[in-house]
Amino acid sequence: MVADTAPTEQAERDARALHDDGHPISPAEIAIGVIIGRTSEFFDFFVYAIASVLVFPKHVFPQFDPLTGTLWSFAIFALAFFARPVGTVIFTAIDRAYGRGAKLTIALFLLGGSTAAIAFLPGYDSIGLGAAALLALFRMGQGVALGGSWDGLASLLAINAPEGRRGWYAMIPQLGAPLGLIVASLLFMFLISALPAQDFLDWGWRYPFFVAFAINVVALFARLRIVVTPEYERSFQHRDLEPAPMLETLRSNWKVIAAGAFAPLASFAMFHMVTVFPLSWVFLFTDETPARFLLIEAVAAFVGVLAIIVSGLLADRVGRRTMLGVTAAAIAAFSGFAPQLLGAGEAGEAAFMLLGFALLGLSFGQSSGALSSEFQPRHRYTGSAFTSDLAWLFGAGFAPLVALWLSSEFGLLAAGAYLLSGAIGTLVALWLNRELARNIG
């Protein structure tokens, strides 16, 4: 059947001819493509996340008090995580019918288009509740596109990892998260510092969304340079990394998908607890300026980069399963005291961020595709994509909303309860799936 063959569309063949220069794709080129792709995606992610705290409560929800407006903003923020599995289903069908290059091109233009559309978003003062409806629509467009932007490069890296180096190769895709946060934080910090407050709220906040679109275009061509080459396609076919039907994948691999979705829960919950949530708390409940805290966030994210690199070295020594378990236990301990540091002044905020990102890096560095090798080869590509979607949905989608609501109602210590639940989820998942986890590393 056509759906099960290599791409045959003329556009796909043209893309191959354009990007194939005749030399084999090396692991280093795959790694660079992974980092560029993930950094662009996370830059989009954090541009939206920062605007969810600093802009949308006033621009879209000015009829509410600042806290309620931010909670509504975080509710729309979560929509992308619901839309992401839908995107995986849609774009898996596109991949099977037209090829990975066509799928990736459509997905990244949808991501960039949805992001750029937010830059033109009218406010509540102009169209009333229509502003929230448009924001929700564009946010879901981002989520669908993120589901479709899965290119399998991370899985190819993991499978090609030399014996005893799986942990090192697993951490490479994760570097995109802190790198994207660094760029987004510094860009917003510059705009906030350079512009009067009213100018920033009127038009200055829109520029990062235009930049995100431009970065997506660059990332698209960097990834197409790898994805549409015949050598890459041969690697995927040889490694059984072709898209499989979604229902078939779910029926035959549901246990691995469930285990893979909950195994990184601690890391993904921690992800938003040290990125989006603290910015909202500091902005709403302290006198700290957003520009200063964004600088702290950028510095802490650099610590996260170093910690992710260290996670790769440690995982190859002790195993990825051990890393996931130990860091989940450490996150559980962190949840019991660290959130209160946000209420302890500037020194406490810095300590929370630096310690949090160090712990996040060690955990997040090994959280992606922890059980990808356990999928049946035919379903590894599709199963890994869908597992990632569910992990983000359960672990991170509601974290800013729940943490802010809990902390505003019951104090900062209560925010740690959400983080603790993620750590417990990871430990329980590893315990219930000992036979699977034993083969991680």
Task: Give a structural overview.
This protein is mostly helical and 441 residues long. Helices cover 77% and strands 0% of the residues. The chain has helices at residues 10-19, 27-54, 56-59, 66-98, 100-119, 124-127, 130-148, 153-159, 166-171, 176-194, 197-202, 207-227, 230-238, 246-262, 265-273, 276-285, 290-318, 320-335, 345-364, 380-395, 399-410, 412-432, 434-437. Helix 2 (27-54) crosses helix 8 (153-159), helix 10 (176-194) runs antiparallel to helix 17 (290-318) and helix 17 (290-318) runs parallel beside helix 19 (345-364). The chain is globular. The model is unreliable at 1-12 (pLDDT under 50).
What layout of secondary structure does this protein have?
Layout (H helix, E strand, L loop, with lengths): L9 H10 L7 H28 L1 H4 L6 H33 L1 H20 L4 H4 L2 H19 L4 H7 L6 H6 L4 H19 L2 H6 L4 H21 L2 H9 L7 H17 L2 H9 L2 H10 L4 H29 L1 H16 L9 H20 L15 H16 L3 H12 L1 H21 L1 H4 L4
List descriptors.
about 450 residues, mainly alpha, about 0% strand, globular, disordered N terminus
pLDDT below 50 for ≥5 consecutive residues: which ranges?
1-12
Mean pLDDT: 83
Q: Count helical runs.
A: 23
Rounded to the nearest angstrom, the radius of gyration is 21 Å
- Alpha-beta content class: mainly alpha
Strand count, sense and barrel status of the largest sheet are: none
Beta-strand content estimate: under 5%
Helix proportion of residues, in percent?
over 70%
Tell how many strands the DSSP assignment holds. 0
